Amino acid sequence: MTPTLNLTINGVPQQIALDDPRATLLDLLRERIGLTGTKKGCDRGQCGACTVLIDGRRMNACLALALSYDGAEITTVEGLATGETLHPVQAAFIAHDGFQCGYCTPGQIMSAVGLIAEGEAGLDPERIREGMSGNLCRCAAYAGITEAVLEATR
Ligand code: FES
Predict the structure, then answer these.
(1) Do 22 and 56 sit in the same domain of this protein?
(2) Which helix (H) or strand (E) holds 117?
(3) Does residue 103 form part of some domain?
């Protein structure tokens, strides 16, 4: 029997027939739901390009077995903006050139949103670099990324 998964994705409840019980949340989002903002880089938990929020916490979607998250709330980069208004973290990435090619950017932004939501007091550049260390940028736009996250904490 095909298991049915109940997920709330970017605020929209969805029932998804899970044809392949081995599917990762990353493949489900990209290939079944069509939310391709979440990127596949390494597909083995090493780059952070696939970062989403699951029940508000940062997670590499490539490491998340979709079947394990029945009932969860998933937020992807597509769920951040409100209409035409960007999320403050998205706006800060633009203001501080927190990207070059942009491939890692959705994961960087989701990780930053999750890091800020963790509510740690006194996020300074060093702590931001540490907190974002699971998100790699091959263009090495780290200075802009750190500035962007710093601004978003203010
Ligand atoms: Fe998931 Fe790289 S694609 S960590």
Answers:
(1) yes
(2) helix 105-117
(3) yes
